[in-house]
């Protein structure tokens, strides 16, 4: 057998590299070769001839020659019936004729791309200086940073209020229905704390189980929540997003998808980043959402007025992702201008009268007639003769030869075809759906959404957000087009809780994460309102009556007791006592020298109380604030026995 043949047979032994018909997927092989995939390399090393050809021996160490390997598999032998190297290929190439898309020489690059940014901002207007942990130079720091964390302050919240959590629910029957392991947590979860660390902490329980992720991250406009003090603000945002999207992908099920709300400020860069993380082949759609009208201050801006946001969608594996068809309301289609009299007496008795006569006869509006008799409102249309089967063509010709007789072609799995005088009879019932509890004329959803009003949503959920709040109808559409009842929905930029509120009302399990403090307008407040029967947003459309519950929990902070004491202090004397305790028991920033502080204590006393509080808070370590689960039994952290039990239950006793 030739070397090419041996390589083909070897690669077919890895199911990742073959399609349903058993054909090799060259792009997949290239992708994994570029990543120096361990399993691919182990596979190649099994064959002595292939090992000798694609590996170099450097002082007793085998080095994979990926460039040679990729040139080899790019040979026309891997393209059946190919007579030219350029067949079926269009794209940019370098001067050596190598396709850029193949070598992935075009990628999005920015300062700090090889870093992890914790992103510990806690208030929308808080400016933060953060450490960029380099993946190569600081692997130990990153491993520690991303270890699973201890959770605390567990509560179950229902109509009767807040209760201490006594354990997580794991409903085997629910899990069987949705194809998940029987011991998967079936509680709704609301998590307060850093979303990067919370996502990594959820991997043990939810890896590969989340059907939909929807996020509405900061847009990095300069005036939004993204307030990090950095000379590379754009780079900081990209690093911030990359870190979170990479772990989000691990949480998605194979048939899951992620949808991200964004404006045009970072859209182009975000899409390239998503191509890199999820694969360009898994791109689903870019939806344009009209969020406002061209009035007010926007009208004075130069150039076209920006009234849109975007929602970009990617699948984990597009071949497995399933789209749930959606419809949108539209006006009455005036082409349907006839009404069938004697409808119940059989097609031979049908009489077609103008719609205007029917409106007079029944004394109603066109919309009332549509709701009551959609099957009797019709139009005639020329059939697409060239696009139909032989039997349909035969019936079309027959109906032309026998005037005024209605012919019916019965079709299994499809609507029957009605023909008269060579023309097809189209029924209005095929243009209506029940939307929000009402029969409505509809059309298929496109990627331009201008039918969901953003005005008048300020009171939805009983909470207020100054800007950026999304309508519940928007989230209902996103959730319903990607999930079935009972599926898990994740939002790790939860904000005021729109995603979780909608998921609760339409019967999806949800996990929400938020680190910013919205006070009385928090998602916690909103979800309590939902449980108590909130009637705003989509409630009337889905007949929401209240009920259900969720579990609330927080990431346990190392310095949380000090933060609370500082914020509650009323005198300088109290703050000085806290400082003494911080020196011995707190986790201070690496930039702080306690000796210098003590030497300049009089300067501290000269500050006003707010300035003193701010200074002490800044002296605490804000980049390593949480307790690692691996250290839960360490006495220094004083984790209660009940919290230990619940954490061990969450992490499966590991």
From TrEMBL:
Keyword vocabulary terms for this entry: Methyltransferase, S-adenosyl-L-methionine, Transferase
**What residue range is the signal peptide?**
none
Q: Name one GO molecular function term.
A: N-methyltransferase activity
Q: Where is the DNA methylase N-4/N-6 domain?
A: 210-515
- Which biological process, per GO, is one annotated for this protein? methylation
Sequence ranges assigned to domain Type III restriction/modification enzyme methylation subunit in this UniProt record:
37-92
InterPro entries given in the database record: DNA_methylase_N4/N6, DNA_methylase_N6_adenine_CS, N4/N6-MTase_EcoPI_Mod-like, RM_Methyltransferase, SAM-dependent_MTases_sf, TypeIII_RM_meth
Q: Which family does it belong to?
A: Belongs to the N(4)/N(6)-methyltransferase family.
What is the name of the protein in this document?
A: Site-specific DNA-methyltransferase
According to its UniProt entry, this protein's organism is: Methermicoccus shengliensis
Q: What is the lineage of its organism?
A: Archaea, Methanobacteriati, Methanobacteriota, Stenosarchaea group, Methanomicrobia
């Amino acid at each position: 057998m030739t070397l090419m043949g041996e390589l083909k047979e070897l690669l077919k032994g890895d199911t990742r590299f073959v399609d349903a018909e058993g054909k090799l997927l060259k792009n997949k092989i290239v992708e994994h070769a570029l990543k120096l995939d361990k399993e691919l390399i182990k596979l190649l090393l099994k064959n002595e001839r292939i090992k000798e050809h694609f590996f170099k021996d450097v002082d007793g160490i085998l080095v994979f020659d990926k460039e040679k390997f990729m040139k080899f598999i790019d040979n026309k032998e891997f393209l059946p019936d190919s007579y030219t190297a350029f067949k079926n290929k269009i794209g940019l190439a370098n001067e050596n004729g190598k396709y850029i898309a193949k070598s992935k020489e075009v990628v999005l690059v920015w300062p700090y791309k090889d870093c992890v940014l914790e992103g510990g901002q806690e208030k929308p207007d808080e400016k933060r200086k953060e450490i960029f942990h380099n993946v190569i130079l600081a692997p130990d720091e990153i491993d520690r940073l991303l270890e699973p964390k201890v959770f605390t302050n567990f509560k179950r919240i229902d109509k009767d209020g807040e209760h201490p959590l006594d354990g997580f629910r794991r409903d085997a029957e629910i899990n069987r229905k949705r194809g998940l392991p029987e011991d998967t947590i079936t509680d709704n979860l609301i998590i307060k704390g850093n979303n990067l660390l919370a996502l990594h902490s959820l991997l043990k329980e939810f890896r590969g189980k989340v059907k939909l992720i929807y996020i509405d991250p900061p847009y990095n406009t300069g005036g939004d929540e993204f307030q990090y003090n950095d000379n590379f603000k754009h780079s900081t945002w990209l690093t911030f997003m990359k870190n979170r999207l990479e772990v989000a992908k691990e949480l998605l099920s194979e048939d899951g998808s992620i949808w991200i709300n964004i404006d045009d400020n970072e859209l182009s860069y975000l899409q390239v980043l998503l191509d890199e993380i999820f694969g360009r082949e898994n791109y689903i759609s870019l939806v344009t959402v009209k969020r406002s009208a061209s009035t007010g201050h926007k009208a004075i801006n130069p150039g076209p007025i920006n009234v849109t946001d975007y929602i970009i969608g990617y699948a984990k594996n597009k071949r497995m992702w399933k789209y749930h068809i959606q419809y949108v309301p539209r006006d009455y289609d005036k082409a349907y201008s006839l009404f069938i009299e004697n409808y119940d007496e059989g097609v031979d008795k049908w009489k077609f009268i103008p719609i205007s006569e029917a409106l007079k006869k029944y004394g109603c509006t066109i919309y009332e007639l549509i709701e009551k008799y959609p099957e009797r409102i019709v139009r005639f249309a020329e059939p697409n003769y060239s696009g139909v089967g032989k039997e349909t063509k035969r019936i079309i010709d027959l109906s032309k030869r026998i005037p005024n007789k209605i012919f019916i072609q019965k079709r299994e799995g499809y609507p029957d075809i009605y023909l008269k005088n060579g023309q097809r009879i189209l029924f209005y019932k095929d243009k209506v759906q029940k939307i929000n509890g009402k029969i409505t004329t509809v059309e298929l959803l496109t990627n331009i959404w201008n039918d969901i009003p953003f005005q008048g949503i300020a009171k939805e959920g009983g909470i207020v957000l100054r800007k950026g709040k999304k309508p519940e109808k928007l989230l209902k559409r996103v959730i319903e087009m990607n999930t079935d009842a009972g599926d898990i929905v994740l939002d790790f930029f939860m904000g005021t809780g729109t995603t979780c509120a909608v998921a609760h009302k339409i019967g999806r399990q949800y996990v929400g994460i938020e680190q910013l403090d919205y006070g009385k307008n928090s998602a916690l407040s909103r979800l309590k309102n939902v449980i108590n029967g909130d009637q705003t947003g989509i409630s009337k459309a889905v007949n929401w009556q209240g009920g259900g519950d969720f579990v609330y929990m927080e990431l346990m902070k190392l310095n949380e007791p000090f933060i609370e004491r500082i914020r509650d202090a009323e005198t300088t004397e109290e703050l000085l006592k806290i400082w003494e305790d911080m020196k011995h028991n707190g986790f201070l920033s690496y930039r702080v020298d306690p000796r210098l502080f003590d030497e300049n204590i009089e300067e501290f006393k000269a500050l006003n109380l707010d300035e003193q509080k701010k200074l002490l808070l800044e002296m605490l370590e804000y980049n390593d604030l949480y307790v690692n689960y691996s250290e839960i039994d360490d006495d220094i952290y004083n984790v209660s026995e009940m919290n230990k039990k619940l954490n061990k239950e969450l992490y499966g006793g590991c």
